[in-house]
Amino acid sequence: MTAFSGRVPRVFTSLFITVFALLAGACAGLPTSPDGKDDSGAGSSTQVNYTAVGASDAIAIGASVSCLPFIDCPTGTGYVQILNRQLATGGKQVSLLNLGIPGAVLSPRIQTISQSYGPRVDFNFMERELPFVSRESTVVTIFAGGNDTNVVARSVSGQANGNPRAYVDDQVRQFATEIAALVDGIRSRAPSARIVIANLPNFAGTPFTNGYTLDQRKALQQLSVGFSTTGINPLASRPNVAVVDLLCEERFYAPSAFSSDGFHPNDAGYAIMAEMMLAAIRDTNYRTPSASCGRMSIVPAL
């Protein structure tokens, strides 16, 4: 397996500088303790309390109007900001708690992998976002696994012991356990929330991998498809949980849906995400993800 090198998505570079510069002051916008309550008026039929769990996607990196972590951003053109505006229809009042942290991965385990294979990741959803999900949330969106895919892919050559497929399969199984634990934790904090999770596109077919070797794309495919089909898609069977199927969404593979870094969506890509997530929020019988589609096997398997 060829080691990953060269061009990396911006999530691993300048965004860390932004996060470190802002955390000291901006975190004042978060609850002061994991049990902190907000005053969003939960219980009113006209009140929507929206919590977004994510990474750079949640603050619209790649969009024409991106945002800063933990700062109100009403004109942002990412999917969270679009949803925030779209949910405020029909007399609804929306309170948004955006927990997105650029560069964050799902778990401490994946964060540890990054420390050995770089670039270093300093935040994870389980420790830095889950404890602050509002207990009054009526809607929670989750987009997890993109940064994790890149981190784990960089470790394949050093950890696979001659069997990269077995190593990646094990990583997929562990991710599945961790994403289920995230959803369990959110459900424990916000028992009545509508939880909407987006699965991952097959990164072997997205623009940032155009210069990657075939082996690198094979690893990215096995990871991103595995994270989606083994980890995220089964969560659609849980009560009041929906999974948005970016993996099999043809529109999400068009180069025109991505920003110049080829990794983050642009306005068009975020609009697709918002459209699909809004439908999943509003439809309690939202369709389950596809069991199979051509986008699951863009390159040969490992």
Q: What overall form do the CA principal axes indicate?
A: globular
Number of strands: 5
CATH architecture level-2 label = 3-Layer(aba) Sandwich
Helix and strand element order: HEHEHHEHHEHEH
CATH topology: Rossmann fold
Fraction of residues in β-strands? 5-15%
Number of helices: 8
Count of all domains: 1
Helix-and-strand structural type: alpha/beta
Give the oligomeric state of the chains in this entry, treating copies of one chain as homo and distinct chains as hetero.
single chain
- What do the pLDDT scores average to? 88
Return Rg in Å: 18 Å
Distance N to C terminus: 9 Å
Helix percent reads 25-40%
Main attributes?
disordered N terminus, single chain, about 300 residues, globular
Layout of helices and strands:
Elements: H1 14-26, E1 47-53, H2 79-86, E2 93-98, H3 108-117, H4 125-128, E3 139-143, H5 146-159, H6 164-189, E4 194-198, H7 214-232, E5 241-244, H8 267-282
Parallel strand pairs: 1-2, 1-3, 3-4, 4-5
Helix pairs in contact: 2-8, 3-5, 5-6, 5-7, 6-7
How would you describe this protein?
There is one protein chain. With 302 residues, the protein is an alpha/beta fold. It has one domain (45-282): SGNH hydrolase (Rossmann fold), CATH 3.40.50. It is 36% helix and 9% strand. The chain is built from eight helices and five strands. α5 runs antiparallel to α6 and α6 runs parallel beside α7. It is globular.
